[in-house]
Amino acid sequence: MDQDESPPDCSSMFLEKVSISYLCPMRKKWYGNKFRLGVLGGGQLGRMMIQEAVNLDVEIHCLDPDQEAPCKDLATSFQIGSLQDYDEVMRFGSDKDLLTIEIEHVNVEALEALEKRGIPVFPQPGILRMIQDKGLQKEFYAAHGFPTAPFRLIQNKSQINENISFPVVQKLRTGGYDGKGVVILNGPNDLKNAFDQESVLEEKIPFEKELSVIVARNQRGECASYPVVECEFNPESNLVEFLFSPARISNSVEREAKSLAEKLIQQLNMVGLLAVEFFLTSSGELLINEIAPRPHNSGHHTIECNSCSQFEQHLRSILNLPLGDTKAIQAGVMVNIIGAEGYQGEPYYDGLEEVLSMPGVKPHIYGKKQTKPHRKMGHATIHHDDLDSAIKIATEVQKRLQVKSV
Question: Which domains does the chain possess?
Answer without folding.
Answer: 20-123 (3.40.50.20), 150-203 (3.30.1490.20), 207-405 (3.30.470.20)
